[in-house]
Amino acid sequence: MPLTPQDRSALRRGRVAVYLLFLLSGTAIGTWTARIPAIKQGLGLSDGHLSLGLLGLAAGAITGMQVMGRKVDRHGSAKVMIPVALIQGAVLILPAYAPDLLTLGLSLFVFGAVHGTLDIAMNANAVEVERAWGKPLMLSFHAVFSIGGFLGAAIGGLFARADLSAATTFLTVAVLVTVLALWAARWSLPPGLVPLVPQPDDSVGLAPESRRAARPARAGSPMRGVLFLGLLAFCCLVGEGASADWSTVYLRDALGSSPGFAALAYAAFSIMMTTGRLAGDRLSTRLGPVVLVRCCGVLAAVGLGTALLIGHPIAGVIGFGCFGAGLSCIAPQVFSAAGNRDPARAGQSLARVVGLGYVGFLTGPVLIGGAAELLDLRKALAIPVALSLFVSLTASALRRPKAAGSSITDPDRQVALD
What we know:
Distance between the termini: 15 Å
Number of helices: 18
Order of helices and strands: HHHHHHHHHHHHHHHHHH
Radius of gyration: 21 Å
Number of strands: 0
């Protein structure tokens, strides 16, 4: 049924609230990344010791994702994401005051746990906003996360150029993050605006808590496809991690380009990924998630694969740009599919899928490095090409069950909001 004017206003505010959360999350992680050299220098860490400290961030993020998935389902995404967003700014400050490697690792574990929890909660809320809106929105949310990453990196770079400390940088960004979190708290989506998704059993019409209790665990449960969606996220994020760590190295060492030109490879990847996400919701509306992901997988594989075959620096930049454009829409569409697989368990589903994707992002560079030792870097980079083709061939896994998919294309809601 059409939304009332009050509902439309609340829904628009709810959409802005999700944008704010993705922006603050990206800004926090971008700022941290930009000031890693200052933290390393301040503690006198070697590359090996720094990598040990960074393991705390990864371990904390995965722990937060897995632990809080059920909390999101039990208490609602808004009740989790708002407090965690407020904490995000505070925990960003902790690494700047770590006196040694051990406390750095612990502080990064806390920062990672909060960041991982916020990742699950805000993606779950994004799925709710998308369902209530009646049109695809997930890609625009992730585009704002990318913009936040650029913003955080720019702030960190400016503070570093001004020779200001990491502590000053993090304190300043913490204030910005807190303001954004308070704004999101005022505008977050009221739970009553999220449409109930029809269930194929006798729990239809019950309250969410009763419906979860009434639903028996069956082999045909929507949760059964979640792990495969996690595999697709893993494949996609292996490519993202590999591009982040190896694109510049490939152009500089394997193709003999200058360091300045080699940096264009990852710049092209990042710019095209953000551009693809900004355009992705329109493409998803027109093509549907399955066709979109299938086409994106082909674009990523053909773009990077052709560049590897040509073996020229200019082709490398273009190839990584195509790879970024191709990967841009895949992970957000996978997350949206996971959240809609069983809306009553969206937090648990996203915890599994995002967690597996994060593992792919972390292990991707290691996988490529090991393969490069055995073969060479050009052949090793064929791994993300093959994984992109696999995602394209199995994109039908994103097809939502009829009950879950109908709410994303509700014509009454589209007309009411357009």
